[in-house]
Amino acid sequence: MLIVIAAAIANGLCIGGSRAVNGKLGQHRGALVASFWNHLGGLLFLSLLLAASGAMPRLPAHAPWHAWCGGVIGALFVALNSFALPRLGTMKTALLVIAGQMLAGVLIDHLAAGGGKSAPIQLAGAALIALGLFASRRAAAQASQPPTAARQA
To answer: What digits encode the pLDDT tens for the residues 25-78?
Structure first.
C-alpha cells in the first residue's frame, strides 16, 4: 500500500510540475498550443516507452464510445490549466483544480452508486478546499495593503 501512496504523491508532483511548465508555454504561445505540445510530447514518450518494453498497445475490441473521451478531456484539461495558471498562480490553480476534481468525484460516485450518504461529507471536503483558497486570497490581500496609522503607532 505504501508504494501506491508514494505513486499517488509522485503523480501529484508530476501534475504540479506539468501545470507550471504548460502554464509558462501557454503564457507565451497560447493555451491550445501548449496543450498540443504537451500531448505530442506525451505521445512520443509513451510510444518510446511501450516500444522499448515490447508492449505496443492494440485497439480494444469492445470499448464503449465514452471510453475514448479521455484524450479529449485530457487535452481540454491541459489547455484550461495553461490558460488559468499564468493568471491565477500555481497554488490557486491547483486548489481550484483539486476542488473541481473532488466535485467530479462526488458526482460520479453519487451517480454510480445511485446516491449515497457520504456525498455531504465529500462536498464538505470540497468546500474546505474553497475556504482555504478564500483564506489565502484574503491573507495575500491584507499583506499587500500599506500599514494603517494604528499599526504604525
So the answer is: 999 999 999 999 999 999 999 999 999 998 877 777 787 888 888 888 989 999
Of 77, 81, 79, 129, the closest CA to residue 102 belongs to 129
H-assigned helices in the chain: 2-29, 31-53, 70-88, 90-113, 119-144, 149-152
Cell numbers at 85, concatenated: 495558471
Distance CA 136, CA 96 (A): 12
Q: What is the pTM of this model?
A: 0.70
What is the rounded distance in angstroms from the CA atom of residue 93 to the CA atom of residue 86?
Answer: 9
Query: Do residues 82 and 26 touch, judged by C-beta distance below 8 A?
Result: yes
Q: How far is 78 from 42, CA to CA, in rounded Å?
A: 12
In the structure grid, which three cell numbers stand for residue 57, read together? 498497445
